[in-house]
Amino acid sequence: MTPTLFRKILIANRGEIAVRIIRTCKEMGIETVAIYSTPDRDALHAQLADEAVCVGPAKAQDSYLNIKNILSAAILTGCEAIHPGFGFLSENPSFADLVKRCGLVFIGPDGDVIRAMGNKSEARRLMRECGVPVVPGSEGGVESVEQGLTAAEEIGYPVLIKASAGGGGRGMRKAFSPEEFKSAFPTAKAEAKACFGDDEVYVEKLLLQPKHIEFQILADNHGNVIHLGERDCSIQRRNQKMIEESPCRALSAALRESMGAHAVEAARAAGYRNAGTVEFVLDTDGKYYFIEMNTRIQVEHPVTEMVTGTDIVREQIRIAAGLPLSLRQDEVEIRGFSIECRINAEIPREGFRPCPGQVHGLHIPGGLGVRVDTALYPGCTISPHYDSMIAKLIVHGQSRAEAVRRMRRVLEEFLVEGVETNVELQYLVLHHEDFIKGRFDTSFMEKNLDRLIAEPDFRRPDNQK
């Protein structure tokens, strides 16, 4: 029997990613069901979907993480599949299992794959077995300070203590000496427990001043696994990505081919299906190491879409429906350069304090090579209950220099009245000499943040000359 596309899909998410998924579904002729919490009743994703169901009150645990209510909404509205987006339940293997048990299709990898790759120490073991280079580290989790100290001594300082079930920079601590390790170890375990319900941590070598490079993977149920090139995600604050671009100027053609082949091999070894991301660190000697695999669509997926012309969400839906990939590896072509800036409702000068509130005025930039993914509209309310990211500004240019100039122009035009944002900080980063010349790594923000926010011109970009 020839596989067919779904008739109706529930989007188990909110905000800009829910809006982005709904738009592709509409273009594919698929009906959508949105879920929303009580304060999100008037949110854009709830208005754009064909149907919308309230799944609980403001607290995420009672709404966007309420598996029972979400599954009930999907069944009662006659959905055939669920797209989890990113965050919330997107990497919850139990949720993926339950979706399947309810006779629905989870638009993502199987629960067992999420489980295996979500445990970072288990993922490292699998990568070693299939020949993908990994950062030197402990064999599995470490249970005590004493065991961790022994592992750190064997690896060599500095080291990184990381939550096995972690992600997003949480449950992660650096240690440059045994004394620092002793104080950092219990802190990392406590944060891992609080964030992920699992306090297992492992130890790996801390590479100083690396680049953070990730490869976009697509894998279907017919044995086809390809990559769509890489993204440079090195501009980060506290391990949270701020600016992403594709392609990475630091990669030669040979290095790109080698890393891409290892990313595909990693996906094959994991038995991966759907869209995912294989993440590496690249040291100053040109050596690269696997660090983790994200088993969902990434926040920064639009830069890959801009340079390849591939709708990744569309491919996700096709794969989940049993259809083969729309393209082969030899058909993937990287055209030009793309940059994405994540815009958060926050106050950088006050320790990046979130700044929720009502949007009184809004101007969305446009023009050639410009894409804005957002759920904002004049009069909407930015909730204090969820992540502070309110928009993604994405540009494309024939050259990196053109993309940088275009992003500066877009940041100048982007206006949100009623709340403060990190637009000014992003604007200053794009004018920094090291960013312009591509001489940056994951330590860029740590080195430059204080000076950037102390700039006398640190004010609205539209006032800058």
Quickly give the structural class. alpha+beta
Could you give a short account of the major beta sheet? 8 strands, antiparallel
- First CA to last CA: what distance? 62 Å
What's the count of strands? 22
Radius of gyration: 22 Å
If classified by CATH, what would the architecture of the largest domain be?
2-Layer Sandwich
Q: Residue share in helices?
A: 25-40%
Would you state the CATH class of the largest domain? Alpha Beta
For the largest sheet, list the strands in their spatial order.
13-12-9-10-11-14-21-19
Briefly, what is this?
With 465 residues, this protein is an alpha+beta fold. 33% of the residues lie in helices and 25% in strands.
Task: Describe the 3D structure.
The protein is α+β, with helices and mostly antiparallel strands and 465 residues long. It folds into 3 domains: 8-107, Rossmann fold (3-Layer(aba) Sandwich), CATH 3.40.50; 136-205, ATP-grasp fold, A domain (Dna Ligase, domain 1, 2-Layer Sandwich); 211-463, ATP-grasp fold, B domain (D-amino Acid Aminotransferase, Chain A, domain 1). 33% of the residues lie in helices and 25% in strands. The chain contains 15 helices and 22 strands. The strands form 6 sheets. An 8-stranded antiparallel beta sheet has the order 13-12-9-10-11-14-21-19, with helices on both faces. It has a 5-stranded parallel beta sheet with strand order 3-2-1-4-5, sandwiched between helices. Strands 7-6-8 form a 3-stranded antiparallel beta sheet, with helices on one face. β10 (225-237) and β11 form a beta hairpin. α4 (93-101) runs antiparallel to α5, α7 packs across α8 (178-196) and α12 packs antiparallel against α13. Mean pLDDT is 94; it is low at 460-465.
